[in-house]
Amino acid sequence: MIVPIWLILIAAFGGYQRKQLGSGTAEYRRVLNASLLTAGLLGISAYLLQYPMSRAYYFILFVIGVPLVLIERYAMRRFLHWSRRHGRYSKRVLIAGDCLHISDLVTILDREPWLGFDIVGLLTTEARACAVNLNVPVVGTPERVLDAVHAARADTVIFAEGAYSRGRDFNRMARQLEDEKAELVVVPTLTDVSTTRMAVRPVAGIPLVYIDKPQAKRATTWLKRSFDIVGSLLLIIATSPFVLAAAVAIKLDDGGPVLFRQDRVGMKGKSFKCFKLRSMVVDAEAIKAQMLMDRNESDGVLFKMKDDPRVTRVGRFTRKYSIDELPQFINVLRGDMSLVGPRPALAKEVAEYKTHVLRRLDVRPGVTGLWQVSGRSDLSWDDTVRLDLYYVDNWSMIQDITILLRTVKAIFSSSGAY
Q1: Helices 313-320 & 222-254, crossing angle to 10 degrees?
Q2: Of all residues in the chain, what percent are helix, strand and coil, respectively (each to 5)?
Q3: N or C: more exposed end of the chain, with fewer CB within 10 A?
């Protein structure tokens, strides 16, 4: 009876809802909560009914079983993302709204094919402008959504800004789809706010969205610091063979120093020495100032070159797999950095920050972060800032753990590493 009850509870917690599958942490959280409830109910039932259940069986079932269920979910999610990138399990999507917001949404969905949204048509009153700027046909207006769903055989309709001017207008359009299988999705005007900070409460028929305050102060508490200390100690021990091997290779390559110490700006603007394994020639900074500044490929305050001539042979390998950054675990142990956080910045970069970008300095910079697991050097400056500010405002321990797990995949894929 245990397995059927376990599955029933996962279903009752919404663990099999399609809208929860494929992205976010809600799926894992619901499966975990249902599994813990199963363990609790089984233990209480065995006690009340005086059932002679083996304690070893109970312990093994849940200590091994629950992690395996979560790993299975992760594996299925990876398979689903891979399948969507190859055109399977995708949804036929209509997007309604004005041309500006439709364009932003199309750009995002095209950039993230793992979401499985196949855009088959647009619903807008600005048909001419959208037809010129986007390679997607305009199939009608938002008011004719039912006809468009039938014509395009759409599975989902996404309503962006400009699709309706008042709430009652949206209700009229939604009523047309009451008997249809197509899903309704509304893109809110709120951006870069985590769903964990939102709570919807109906008041007099109006859904009010309560937003928790930004979480930057929580990202500097003893919980995160304790996690950093324990994690950095374990990682220093675990990665020491790789650091030693890389150090020997660097020394044999050109005889220069193994460590590269660079002044970086940390929390609240405090400077610190950031440790890295040297991956460039000894006089790299002088060469950049004299010869390379006009070859900067960045669109912001950073300096980027995909084929930087200053990188050594060993450096290409250590950068590809982020081995050069392993000494930063010492910075984490010292309190200069965190395991997860915004990218550590140079003082001259900070001097060029706009006022809102200084928000990045409210927490400790990280060895890894959303910027690394989302593309590393391939990101534009605006995307880097947006991800760092999102992290600062929406910090949570679960998010840190998720980023650390995603970092492993990002390192082995070596995407954007140069």
Answers
A1: 160
A2: 55, 15, 30
A3: N
Among 27-31, 144-148, 214-218, 406-410, where is mean pLDDT lowest? 406-410
Run of H or E residues at 346: none
Model pLDDT, residue 140: 87
Contact 80, 22 (CB under 8 A): yes
* 3-state secondary structure at position 65: helix
| Residues making up the chain, counted from first to last | 418
- The pLDDT tens digits for 149-165 are 999 999 999 998 888 88
CA 253 to chain CA mean position, Å: 37
Token reading at 398: 């679960």
* The pLDDT value given to residue 375: 63
Report the share of the chain in percent with pLDDT over 90: 34
Contact 26, 20 (CB under 8 A): yes
Whether residue 222 is predicted with pLDDT greater than 80 in this model: the reply is yes
Q: What is the largest CA-CA distance in the chain?
A: 81
pLDDT category at 95 given cuts 50, 70, 90 is: very high
> CB neighbours of 140 closer than 8 A, spacing ≥ 6?
121, 123, 147, 148, 151
Which of the four pLDDT bands, split at 50, 70 and 90, describes residue 304? low
C-alpha 326/C-alpha 248 separation (Å) is: 15
- Look up residue 5 and give its two tokens: 């009850």
Q: Which residue has the higher pLDDT, 16 or 19?
A: 16
Residue type, 275: F
Angle, vertex CA 89, rays to CA 88 and CA 92, nearest 5: 100
Residue 351 is encoded by which pair of tokens?
């001097």
Who's near 15: CB < 8 A, 6+ residues apart? 27, 30, 31, 34
Domains with residue ranges and CATH for the chain? 2-85 (no CATH), 91-189 (3.40.50.1980), 217-413 (no CATH)
